[in-house]
């Protein structure tokens, strides 16, 4: 299976027209655009199946964590699969898909990490949660991170004859997050899910704006982010992997 991998296209800042390539599947690992705009783009940009996991930027411009996800799913055409804590089997490969988020423990002091991320990250000013559309709080992300980890733990423990690919927006381990995420703000970008990673054949992610294709503990870790205008991320427009 030939898989075209993208993340962090940030179409809200500049357009992108994918090259014509021979792909059986497209994986969009989050931060494609804000709200449902990335889904509309994917509907039109690709004819083959697409797996799309929302990133944090899909919820920007006042997006609500639950309602924006629902609207994205409703906007998706039949070949575009917007997934969150869901499994999709294509041929002999199962894809386990979750945004992941963070529990702020990955830098060793979750209280300090929560405070610094809450103080500096735009997510907590522009994303909404809860019945009253209140501003996002760190505890909201912790709760969703717990759900995500439980989902992956449960699914990875199930017997499966074929290949297993995990798709998240957030980076699973610090070692492949790249530079620029030092200090406790790094807790907003990566988890420390080495135990889960070792149970997957491949793990596709985004969020860090750092391209990587490497193997750790038998798991192939892949990220192909375009990033913000002018940012050097190592992005390859026709990046295809074979699964």
TrEMBL record:
Calcineurin-like phosphoesterase domain ranges (all copies):
1-210
Q: What is this protein called?
A: Metallophosphoesterase family protein
Q: Which PANTHER family match?
A: SER/THR PROTEIN PHOSPHATASE SUPERFAMILY (AFU_ORTHOLOGUE AFUA_1G14840) (PTHR37844), SER_THR PROTEIN PHOSPHATASE SUPERFAMILY (AFU_ORTHOLOGUE AFUA_1G14840) (PTHR37844:SF2)
Q: Which GO terms describe its molecular function?
A: hydrolase activity
Extract the SUPFAM superfamilies matched here. Answer: Metallo-dependent phosphatases
Source domain of life = Bacteria
């Amino acid at each position: 299976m030939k898989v075209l991998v993208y993340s962090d296209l940030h179409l809200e800042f500049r357009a992108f027209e994918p090259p014509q390539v021979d792909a059986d599947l497209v994986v969009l690992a989050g931060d494609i655009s804000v709200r449902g705009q990335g889904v509309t783009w994917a509907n039109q940009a690709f004819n083959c199946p697409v797996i799309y996991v929302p990133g944090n930027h899909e919820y920007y411009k006042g997006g609500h964590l639950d309602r924006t996800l629902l609207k994205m799913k409703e906007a998706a055409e039949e070949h575009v699969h917007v997934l969150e804590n869901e499994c999709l089997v294509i041929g002999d490969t199962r894809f386990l898909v979750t945004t992941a988020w963070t529990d702020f423990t990955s830098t060793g002091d979750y209280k300090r990490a929560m405070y610094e991320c809450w103080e500096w990250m735009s997510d907590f000013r522009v994303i909404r949660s809860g019945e009253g559309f209140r501003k996002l709080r760190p505890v909201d992300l912790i709760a969703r991170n717990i759900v995500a980890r439980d989902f992956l733990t449960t699914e990875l423990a199930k017997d499966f004859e074929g290949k297993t690919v995990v798709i998240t927006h957030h980076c699973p381990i610090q070692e492949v997050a790249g530079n620029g995420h030092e200090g406790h703000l790094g807790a907003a970008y990566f988890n420390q899910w080495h135990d889960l990673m070792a149970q997957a054949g491949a793990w596709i992610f985004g969020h860090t704006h750092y391209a990587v294709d490497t193997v750790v503990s038998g798991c192939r870790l892949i990220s192909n982010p375009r990033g913000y205008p002018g940012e050097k991320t190592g992005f390859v427009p026709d990046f295809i992997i074979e699964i």
